[in-house]
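Researcher: Batch entry, complex prediction.
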Amino acid sequence: MSLENKEFKPKIVAFCCNWCSYAGADLAGSSRLSYPADVKIIRVPCSCRVNPMFILRAFEKGADGVIMCGCHPGDCHYSTGNYYARRRMTLLFSMLDYIGVENGRTRVEWVSAAEGVKFSETMNSFVEKIYSLGENVRLGDLRCKN
Amino acid sequence: MQRIGVFVCHCGSNIAATVDVKKVVEMAQMEPGVVHAEDYQYMCSEAGQAKIAAAIHEKGLTGVVVCSCSPRMHETTFRKAAERAGLNPYMVEIANIREHCSWIHKDMEEGTKKAVILMRAAVAKVNLNAPLQAGESRVTKRALVIGGGIAGIQTALDIADAGYEVDIVEKTPSIGGRMSQLDKTFPTLDCSACILTPKMVEAAAHDKIKIYTYSEVDKVSGFVGDFTVDIRKKARSVDMDKCTGCGVCQEKCPSKKAPSEFNRGLNTRSAIYTPFAQAIPNVPVIDREACIKFKTGKCGLCSKVCQAGAIDYEQKDEIVTEKYGAIVVATGFDTINLEKYDEYAYSQSKDVITSLELERVMNAAGPTHGHLERLSDGKAPKEIVFIQCVGSRCSDDRGKPYCSKICCMYTAKHAMLIRDKYPDVNVTVFYIDVRTPGKNFDEFYRRAVEQYGVNYIKGQVGKVIPQPDGKLLVQGSDLLDNRQILKEADMVVLATAIEPNPDVRKIATMLTASIDTNNFLTEAHAKLRPVESPTAGIFLSGVCQGPKDIPETVAQAGAAAVKAIGLLAKDKLMTNPCTAQADILLCNGCSTCENVCPYGAITYEDKEVNDHGIRETRRIAVVNNALCQGCGACTVACPSGAMDLQGFSNRQIIAEVDAICR
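Model: Structure tokens for the complex:
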């Protein structure tokens, strides 16, 4: 089967901090607010735990989009973690864009524990964006593709 | 290689309806390391937990994956179950296939596929888990209560009665809060001061309670069991030890033009003042912005008349640093600003007032000495209109989306009291719904209608138009009769929405406690942990968590106290073992991690290392496990990759990424 006629099902990794966004995702769940199953969430203690290496790894392994969610600026459970995350991601995303992983494939969003609606809306819009961009081929290790 | 058991929960039909659990079990058996997989109706039940324990014993499991609800729900349950069966609790991971999968997807095939992937990620992580040991930290047996209203006072009294020290920090010059401003309370109509002031006195006299009034929390550091708090005692300009509370200074003060906060600005007070006669402490403060001495340097009359010599113009703010084991937030509420509701003519007419202002008008110690009169001309009103839900249950961004909960009842109270005292006054209430869920509440409302003849009209008011003759023309609708209503009133009372105290955002940030979109503090669980913040050691009392009446506030205050006592009663707390650790062979002591650590948990030591046969002394980062909270900021900042987080290691997270992208 060639790549062209296979229906595109994107692989999307979402890093969510334990205190705000993961809880926001839980709230989206308990409120039954749907978003596409393409999104898979990895729980991290804080957005500042997300090493740029994890994101590069995801793209290398064939992810089509990576989104990182944390507490709103000023509301970080660890006071300052999301500020570090914001700076790191700004730098990383501009570098990724430079090497051909378009900015649309990477995103940072602040979602609080009370924002189940925002979580679901964010995921819906991100997945829609990834569908419009299509498969990520730039950084993918071709050996990882079927 | 680990020996992993995978346990898939049906959660009744919550998971099983959209995820083929048998398929997840089947797929789990093919994962590396998995030696056992089974499913069960309710994994969290006793029988479910017994299945996990049995598999640990029989199959010699070294790791467990439970595919179930969110780890925020039952991670602790399953970790404890594993621990009882002799497994290190940190060898258990949860795959969240309910909140993150079955509840949001409708298609069985799609849901099952996703559940399998989430299971794989958890298995991949457990394969790299290592047993962790929780450390211990001490508990300071003292609680801080922020806010001295009825919620704060009740919480403090309950904690103090259990034998623990409590400090109350109150921003205004006296404790008492909103309740001290109320005249009568529903549904019993007892006078607010009569039931509140004894509690205020009890708190002030309690040997375990220390009250900081005219003070604010400036800084909070530390964590559950061991908070360090800076309290700013604002300059009172009066020596609390010397003042006898005689009140002569207030009488003699020539500056009497400052709006009285206690009377909601309806009258004025002197520059040196106590907010109300029963204030605790009965020690005045000088409002430096209104005081002539502070503005021009001339005056000093209060100092001259004070026989105790208590006036101190030189007094400065003082910072007191204290240690606490638990912090209770009881910051209460205020009414919303009515700027965006100008159709009710609040800013145009003095006779349009809020319900809280009416409380002051009805109160004997209020601006009208308890006489019901128009604030514009002092005339007795004959026709009063109450408008409900001003800013509450609002669908646009002018007001608040929630129901303020107390307005229906206090309006019934106001209407009843007015009709009782002034039978010739007509009272009309415009309402959307009348909500009276509470003990004896509906009976109370019906008494207002049936016994006191209050005229309730279902419908909203579109506009209040002040007339040249001083009357107010109220344009409303009657939905039940389907007609427009034009009514001339002498007074209009707005049941104004309540909102959390505006300072709460600042306080929540200091405490790293989460807050919702309406600025109410978020509870750890909406149903099961309603008085705890998700941040350990922080408890919620009163309206800071959501709208409440007095009985509910007192009940919640007691509940918050019990939770705080439960914490203070412990001598030691188990600390989170998911802390950072530096690989001594990779660390080069560069100090990058120290700079990003918000807890000052990282120090450096000269250590003897054996790097592939080369023995030398190197400067190595050392993490203090009692201080480290496990955020992981240092792990990413570390340029040599020496720093890693236990329980969320680089290898574990990458394994999850790989499993998801497989």
